[in-house]
Amino acid sequence: MGDIAFLPNPRLDVRDLRVVLALASAGTTAQAATVLHLTQPAVSRALLAAEDKLGARLFDRTPKGLVLTEAGQELVSGATRLLVDLGDLEHRVRAPVAKPMRIRLVCECYTAYHWLPSALVNLRKSLPGLELSLAVEHTKAPVPALVAGDIDVALVTSSPVPHAQLEERHIFTDEVLFIMSSSHPLASRKALTRDDLRETTLLTGQTPPAEAQWFMKQVFGRERPRLRFEQLPLTEALVDVARAGMGVAVLSEWIARPHLDKGGLVAKRFASGPLRRSWRIAWRREVGDAALRLAAALETTAPRNLSLD
């Protein structure tokens, strides 16, 4: 057996990781204290201790709450996986022949089905204790389906999650872009304004109501202008119509990138700032252990942020 002296000796312990994950999810020390059943001063001290051990700031303190720094994002992305692996090891020691758990999964945004099915193939190999199945029929209303117990886990982008009944965790962030023909009248603009969007046809997929409401709120605030939307069932059709100069497609960056690489199309951001969506995983508390294992695995397979440059 190898000498234990040569094994890594991490500065952080499980308690540090749990505090950082709770703060990343809750956004404030007060809310994290409630989750961890600690006092707010105790959570603040624990965060300072973890940052001191690492010699790095994990959160920026803002008027709206705690925001992960780059170092904090790196820690959070790996902390869930570490805790899940430790839990799996303990579980195998205690119950090596435990029956697999069946998880019914759905995505609020149809765009997730561009990457999730292939990701599930690899996830099934890395999560032998889980049996995963897609419940596509609940795509348009995943949160009510979770509350009703019709599904176990959902990937959500826009719908609020009732924390009194469900749990949730951030997985990744993407940006919504405007894709158009390189010959489109708006293609010469550096970025698109609200007035630009009022005057053009916007091409979208089968957008759930919550996603459409999110888009309108992010772009127009309380204003509700009449826009020209055209829904197309397939991404390829949506891109082809945009390439023909018949409208501006509204697409996630990671879906748009392969089509942009083929030429003939350009991508524009919104002039007031990037339209970023937070993808979260929500689950019923009864499947908490399995959901955390799934969340940790999805963090490694989810699309990465891309640059327009």
UniProtKB/TrEMBL annotation:
InterPro entries: LysR_HTH_N, LysR_subst-bd, WH-like_DNA-bd_sf, WH_DNA-bd_sf. Keywords: DNA-binding, Transcription, Transcription regulation. The keyword Mitochondrion does not apply. Gene3D superfamilies: Periplasmic binding protein-like II, Winged helix-like DNA-binding domain superfamily/Winged helix DNA-binding domain. Residues 12-69 form the HTH lysR-type domain. Signal peptide: none annotated. GO terms for molecular function: DNA-binding transcription factor activity; transcription cis-regulatory region binding. It comes from the Bacteria. PANTHER family: HTH-TYPE TRANSCRIPTIONAL REGULATOR, HTH-TYPE TRANSCRIPTIONAL REGULATOR METR. Belongs to the LysR transcriptional regulatory family. This is LysR family transcriptional regulator. It comes from Pyxidicoccus fallax. The lineage of its organism: Bacteria, Pseudomonadati, Myxococcota, Myxococcia, Myxococcales.
